[in-house]
Amino acid sequence: MSNNPTTLFDKVWNAHVVRKIEDGPDVLFIDRHFIHEVTSPVAFLGLEKRGLSVIFPERTFATADHNTPTLNQHLPVNDPLSANQLKALEANSGKYGISHWGLGNPKNGIVHVVGPENGITQPGMTIVCGDSHTSTHGAFGCIAFGIGTSEVEMVLSSQCIMQPKAKKMRISVNGSLGKGITPKDVILYIISRLTAAGATGYFVEYAGDVFENMSMEGRMTVCNMSIEMGARGGMIAPDEKTFSYIKGKEKAPEGEAWDKALAYWKTLKTDENAVFDKEYHFDAKDIEPMITYGTNPGMGMGITRQIPTADEAGGGKASFEKSLNYMGFHEKEKMLGKKVDYVFIGSCTNGRIEDFRAFASIIKGHKKADHVTAWIVPGSHLVEQQIREEGILDLLLEAGFQLRQPGCSACLAMNDDKIPAGKYAVSTSNRNFEGRQGPGARTMLASPLVAAAAAITGVVTDPRELMN
Fold first, then answer.
1. Pure H helices in 298-434
2. What is the pTM of this model?
3. What is the DSSP code (8-state) at residue 232?
4. Alpha-carbon torsion 432, 437, 443, 448, what sign?
5. Rounded to the nearest 5 degrees, what angle is found at the Cα of 401, between the Cα atoms of 397 and 402?
6. CA within 13 Å, CB half, 116
7. Measured in Å, how far apart are the chain's first and last C-alpha atoms?
């Protein structure tokens, strides 16, 4: 054993290297493989063509989420492409003995929500999925990242993947967050400071008081959006919060296996004096409720500020102007008071129970603005059940909202929940690229608190004005 101080990333990576290729990638063993209906059908076709099977079906978990409707899930899916993809996922899972949670299954939901809530995600694992926001699972001290279709096929057939080892970055945020500041604001602030490409080529470890004090839900939100600054993934060292979150979950180890796992999990932290390729330090007091004004997640700002000029924002002037033109905004304008047409709370970023509790805390005693269409979409049936049991549904209904069924919904324009062209949406999802929520849709990324304030007032509003 080497006495060299080692990072959390190195500890997990090195424990999974099956083979090193000189001047090439490492062959990495994968503990958990999540699949959904969009990226898996072609991978399964590849297996068939080559006469291959799934080597460890018990390490793969399938759920339907991207193409699913969020209303009337008991009815046949209208869109023929979506219906075919959902049928293919079910058929392929059945053929190869893979656990499948399709529409109507009580465990169904967004892949990066159901994995953790069922105890499938555990510290020190390598986790992949044909979905870029797989980085969510890094909140448990995992190396988790998205892969392409050919790599999905590779993992199904060999349980391994070839990957060059990323560089290491640590982002520390210390101090106390102010009133109304959520984990979503923390990560949007970091991305606004680093830009949408600022962590390209790196795996990020988040450290410091702010992340230590965060709930597991909050940590998942942060790790989920690591990809939005170009990172390969993000991770947070597991601690007592992590262990108590996992304990008792369906797929969690029990008895002696739990004790053994726990002893290992407690070693999963960066050693003192371990070296990172790059480090950033931020102060919690500098973070306010955030909102994006442009067409990438790096174009974000504190909600009380003005849209910067191209020079202040840095980067290319032409692309900055194109972005503002698409959004219908101008340099030096305030975001506060801008009209909002749609509000979306949900997605693998903010579709967990904590997010709906936050949303409910703002809307309580208020009514939804008449002109606002609000899509309230839990990340799973378990979250939906909690919303009902905790009385949040009653608050939603009183305020004029409707609860939809689980799915990716308006995060991406792959299902019925599309924002119409030219309309403005305050969205708790993760991406605001042109057309991401529908052709011509204009997306402002924000926290569940900012979304709730917009849903009530009908305009971009500082949620702190509505907090008791």
1. 310-313, 317-327, 347-350, 353-363, 381-389, 392-398
2. 0.97
3. S
4. negative
5. 85
6. 31
7. 55
Token digits of residue 130: 């044909």
Q: Name 287's Cβ contacts closer than 8 Å, sequence gap at least 6.
A: 173, 177, 178, 181, 185, 186, 189, 302
- Virtual torsion, Cα 408, 414, 419, 424, nearest 10 deg: 70
Instruction: Give the pLDDT of residue 61.
Output: 98
Q: Give the separation between CA 40 and CA 264, rounded to whole angstroms.
A: 32
State which amino acid sits at residue 98: I
Spell out a b/e string for 415-443, using b for 16 or more CB atoms within 10 Å of the CB, else e.
Answer: bbbbbeeebbbbbbbbbbbbbbbbeebbb
What contacts 24+ positions apart, CB below 8 Å, involve 388-392?
Answer: 390/353, 390/357, 392/356, 392/357, 392/360
Q: Retrieve residue 79's tokens.
A: 């869109």
CATH topology of domain 8-164+240-263: Aconitase; domain 3 (3.30.499)
Residue 337, helix vs strand vs coil: coil
Q: Three-state SS for 166?
A: coil
Task: Give CB contacts under 8 A, 24+ apart, made by 363-368.
Answer: 363/395, 363/396, 363/399, 363/401, 363/452, 363/455, 363/456, 364/395, 364/399, 366/399, 366/456, 366/466, 367/399, 367/400, 367/456, 368/399, 368/400, 368/401, 368/455, 368/456
What number is the average pLDDT over the span 224-248?
98
What residue has token string 């940590």?
219
- Helix, strand, coil tally for the chain in percent (to 5): 40, 20, 45
State whether residue 235 is helix, strand or coil. strand
Residues 359-365: what's their mean pLDDT?
97
State yes or no: pLDDT of 2 exceeds 60. Answer: no
The topology under which CATH files domain 290-466 is: Aconitase; domain 3 (3.30.499)
Burial of residue 320, with CB atoms counted within 10 A of its CB: 0-12 exposed, 13-18 middle, 19 or more buried: buried
Length of the chain: 468
Domain extents for the chain? 8-164+240-263, 167-239+269-286, 290-466
Tell me if 410 sits within 8 A of 445, measured CB to CB. no
8, 268 in Cβ contact below 8 A?
A: yes
In angstroms, the CA 250 to CA 120 distance is 8
pLDDT in tens, 159-176: 999 999 999 999 999 999
> Could you tell me the fold of the domain covering 167-239+269-286?
Aconitase; Domain 2 (3.40.1060)
* DSSP codes, 388-418: HHTTHHHHHHHTT--B--SS-GGGSTTSS--
Asked if domains 167-239+269-286 and 290-466 share a fold, the reply is: no
23 exposed, middle or buried (CB, 10 Å; 0-12, 13-18, 19+)?
A: exposed
